Amino acid sequence: MTAYTTAEVARLAERLLDRSLPKAEWTHAAHLTATLRLVRTRNAGLERDLPGIIRAYNEAVGGVNDDANGYHETITQAYLAAIRGFVTAQPAELDDGEAAARLLATPLGDKAWPLGFWSRERLFSVEARRGWMEPDLAPLDHGPPEHAR
């Protein structure tokens, strides 16, 4: 598991936002940690803003956002809602480094977490990549993201 200091968590989110984070450092742990920081510092409007942030980052590092690669709406919104729920349950005084360590130690830290709720076929469909799709295996513990309610 990747451990981050509070300063590293802040820098990771900054480098995502300014698109200077090297592609090789954009790991699952980095996705979750940067999102954690964004939820803790600029929570309002993330359902709307995070897709553009991720798409712009992907393009800045030479990636594409199409029907098979890059930004994935259902996965992003599911993790965002789950991370928001995680943050709400943590003490406000918890620093970002410790919060990130706790988050990565939860089931969310496993890249396969969404497959407990969506079948592989549904989750990796073009429709799920382009827009929100409800889970077909089990309801999300934290409910659907705000924009899907």
Describe, in plain words, how this protein is organized in 3D:
The chain is mostly helical. The protein has one domain. Helix 2 crosses helix 5 and helix 3 crosses helix 4. It is globular, with a radius of gyration of 15 Å. The termini are far apart. The relative contact order is 0.16.
List the helices and strands and how they pair.
Layout: H1 6-17, H2 28-42, H3 46-60, H4 73-89, H5 96-104, H6 120-123, H7 126-130
Helix pairs in contact: 1-2, 1-5, 2-4, 2-5, 3-4
Observed structural traits:
mainly alpha, 149 residues, 7 helices, globular, 52% helix
Structural class: mainly alpha
How many whole angstroms does the radius of gyration measure?
15 Å
Give the H and E element order: HHHHHHH
State the end-to-end distance. Answer: 33 Å
Tell me the β content: under 5%
Q: How many structural domains in the coordinates? A: 1
Number of helices: 7
Task: Report helical residue fraction.
Answer: 40-55%
Q: How many strands? A: 0
Shape designation? globular
Biggest sheet descriptor:
none
Q: Kindly state the mean pLDDT as a whole number?
A: 94
- Report low-confidence residues grouped into runs of 5 or more: none
